[in-house]
Specification:
By secondary structure, the chain is of the alpha+beta class. It has helices spanning 43-51, 64-70, 129-147, 150-166, 169-182; strands at residues 9-17, 20-28, 35-39, 53-58, 78-81, 84-87, 92-103, 107-119.
């Protein structure tokens, strides 16, 4: 198993759990299984504890990261395969058994065991600083809306500048979602 979709470090994907999609980073360290850190109270966390599975969806459309970070997925955006689901727009996906292995006051640590993976659209996504800045800004925005940290705001504005300079149409649309959610 494993076609090298994950690389060491943190790979940003869109996690699909039962009728839910949300961007998250899968942590992969040498000699360890892939892991997630989930904040308590999220639908992703609730679904993983309830159903015990997740699909990691690899997508080339940067618009989908802020979309699923701040709005619900619709049924017509999901493909069902038995009890599991993945995004219709996925370039590739990995189905994982997901098991909580540790808990803190605010988070759960989840170990992932690969069950199946599928590459739908082979190819390599070209590196695009605008795309990467959307991902970075989305990660910062998920924290900024909770804390209103001036440091996070500065990072988001920096990413917005990169998106403006380096991003294409989809990246510009993603930036609009983030501007609205963060009120920037």
């Amino acid at each position: 198993m494993g076609m090298g979709l994950l690389t060491e470090g943190i790979t940003e994907i869109i996690a699909v759990t039962k009728d839910n999609a949300a961007p998250i980073g899968i942590i992969l360290r040498e000699g360890q299984c892939p892991k997630l850190i989930l904040f308590k109270g999220s639908r992703t966390e609730e679904n993983i504890r309830k159903y015990g599975w997740m699909t990691a969806n690899f997508v080339s459309d940067s618009f989908l990261y802020p979309k699923y970070a701040f709005s619900d997925v619709s049924q017509d955006e999901l493909v069902s395969e038995g009890e599991y689901q993945y995004l219709q727009s996925a370039d590739a996906w990995i189905l994982y058994k997901a098991e909580v292995t540790n808990e803190t006051e605010a988070t759960y640590l989840v170990d992932l065991t690969e069950i199946k993976e599928e590459i739908i659209r082979p190819g390599i996504r070209r590196v695009n600083r605008g795309f990467d800045a959307v991902i970075d800004a989305t990660v910062h925005a998920t924290r900024y809306i909770r804390t209103a940290s001036p440091d996070l705001k500065e990072k988001i504005l920096y990413d917005f500048d990169l998106i403006r300079k380096c991003g294409g149409k989809q990246e510009q649309e993603a930036k609009k979602i983030l501007e609205s959610v963060c009120r920037l």
